[in-house]
Design brief:
Order of helices and strands: EHHEHHHHEHE
CATH topology: Rossmann fold
Distance between the termini: 23 Å
Radius of gyration: 15 Å
Number of helices: 7
Number of strands: 4
CATH superfamily: 5'-nuclease
CATH class: Alpha Beta
Largest sheet: 4 strands, parallel
Helix content: 40-55%
Number of domains: 1
Strand content: 5-15%
Length: 137
Amino acid sequence: MSTLVDTSVWSLALRRKSAPSSREETLKRLILDGQVRMIGPIRQELLSGIPDPEQFEALESRLAYFPDTPILTSDYELAASFFNLCRQHSVQGSHIDFLICAVAASNDFQIYTTDKDFLSYRKHIPIVLFEDSFNVE
């Protein structure tokens, strides 16, 4: 199954200077298996806040390997629907999180994240979380 990798997982993998963690090894395996999917908002989050132009360009170049999955108008509408449904159940989340959920749901992707908010979302909306998302290292 294709996997939409959330910013939280990418950030852990990209900033680590020590030995690879199990999450990084899992991400590497998913990349090598051709299962990783990307969307523009995650790419933007990863590139935002990198003031050094050389570091920015290096990361931009590495991420270019992953083409963006198109985000359709129906995905934005589904994200809004997910937001409203979760809010009715007193579950708060960011617009980006619900867009990730919508793109994943409409494309039959699983979501690989360390953000525990997604555990609350999945109680109310049809998302599949990657099995290793919350394993403690």
